[in-house]
Design goal:
By secondary structure, this protein is α+β, with helices and mostly antiparallel strands. The protein has one domain: 3-Layer(aba) Sandwich (Rossmann fold), CATH 3.40.50.880. Helix content is 39%, strand content 28%. It is built from 6 helices and 8 strands.
Length: 158
């Protein structure tokens, strides 16, 4: 977190945060990060985008693989909110020429998430019901490529 705070203090370095990286950036900016009272958010889930989020991701609504129980509890001062979901209000943050983050996993696909779900179900992390509900969504379309494009645009233009 100290390293991330130092990186964020420089105006010439751009940071991208995904899941835990999103949470570390939130912590480095002084906001509460920790367990979500609503529990886990897993598999492909919808994210309602703000007007800025729609511009950044060039979508009306974002669908991303999720695999988290911890959340950033509120937006740090000076950040632009990108989106929210019923289980997680802070799904993405943006500060031009500084950082862009998402709570979800644009890099995940059906196979990766199915394997994580199966392993965590076997180890008792997910109940039968939670596992079955997540497995029903694991193969849904997701917008990982759109997020990847937004990250590339951020690095190129800020």
């Amino acid at each position: 977190m100290d390293f991330t705070s130092k990186v964020l203090a420089h105006d010439r370095i751009r940071a991208i945060g995904v899941c835990f990286g999103h949470q570390i950036i939130g912590r480095a900016l002084g906001v509460k990060v920790g367990p979500n009272e609503a529990g886990w958010e897993v598999a492909v889930s919808g994210v309602d985008l703000t007007s800025e989020g729609k511009e950044v991701f060039r979508l009306e609504k974002l669908r991303l693989h999720q695999m988290h129980r911890d959340i950033v509890h509120f937006y740090p001062s000076g950040t632009i909110p990108l989106g929210s979901s019923p289980r997680c209000e802070v799904q993405g943050m943006y500060a031009p020429r500084r950082f862009i983050t998402v709570q979800g996993h644009p890099e995940f696909n059906e196979e990766i998430v199915a394997e994580i779900l199966a392993s965590r179900h076997k180890n008792g992390v997910f109940s039968d019901t939670a596992y079955e509900e997540a497995m029903a969504r694991v193969g849904n379309e997701h917008d990982g490529l759109a997020v990847g494009k937004a990250f590339l645009m951020f690095v190129a233009d800020g």
